[in-house]
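Continuing the series of single-chain predictions for the mutant panel. This is the parent chain; the variants come on the following pages.
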Amino acid sequence: MNTNDVIQVMTGTGAGWGDPLERPLELVKEDLKNGYITLEQANRYYSLRDLCGMLAVYPRPHWPANHQSLETLNYITGPGRVTMVEPTVVISIVVSFLSLIVSGLTAWLTLLRKGTVKMTQPSLVAFAFDLPQGTPKVFLRTLLFSTAKRGRVVENMFIKMRRSESVQAFSMWGYGDEPPLVVGGGVYVPPEGMASYHHFLLRDDQTPFEFLPGEYAIEVYASILRQKSPLLLYRIQLSLSEQLATAIVNKEAGVIFNWGPESGQYLAHLMEGPRERFIWRS
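Parent structure:
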């Protein structure tokens, strides 16, 4: 350089004045064409519109980094601009939305979902007689559990016993593991379940019933609090042989059916012992 030489420095951008989004689009394109700004800067500070002209959020990673020409910009953006959103902002919005969904689902499962009551396969079923009248009864051992986190209340239980064309309901219900039995007047069933013996007897005003030989289908029902119709919990298929039916005619013994996991069926045998074992006590 020599004395009195003049050096002129021209910068591509400056501090500027006003809102960048108010800068005319044609001037933004001219700055891009002259190399004053990059395509990334045009996206970030001047916010351009996508091809369809309908999308308000268009993260920068969707812009092709290898297309820096004005023709490419015009093709992608078209006329007009729209506010761009950083990818991190989009990710935060998505995460917040998913968290809201998870929170709502958790609240529904724990607080709002009513759920229902279910019953496991009884480990044993018995045909017996209640003393002192010798009233026929059926008792079984099973686990009741609720699918609702808050549990459910069972107001009443009963069974229907079917043999050939006849159907007999045993509508008096009691439960408990040891005498005296608790007369069924409602029981809370928690999610973790409750295992117990459930006894079903005939009412005094019902038709007399005899345990005759044949095939039996037993349906166990429960009346759930705030539920109109009784809920069918389980169906049990049993076979009472003529030999066992004859053995309990005198009402001094009963027949017990134990579930055999290996055979996949109930195995029946005579149940003898102290008469008090079958006593119903309210």
